[in-house]
Amino acid sequence: MGSLQPWHWAVIIIAVVLLFGSKRLPDAARSLGKSMRIIKAETKGLAEDGNAAQAQQPPAAPPAAAPYVQPAPPAAQPPAAPPRDTSI
Question: Residue 25's CB: how many other CB atoms inside 10 A?
């Protein structure tokens, strides 16, 4: 129900040919192919630049040891209530 049947594709193709004309479709496909090649080359270049930048960075220095801080003494607690006499 959610997928397109072969006749759906046929209707879409006919509509595209009628809208754009048979002369403009090859030009549009050629232009789309060139655009995809440019995008592919640029993303590959960005990935190579990112890898090169990571290789050029010096290794990170280990984190400096934090000074020891003695924990604060526990807060004073209120005195405990006297035990109840349950021997009645």
Answer: 14
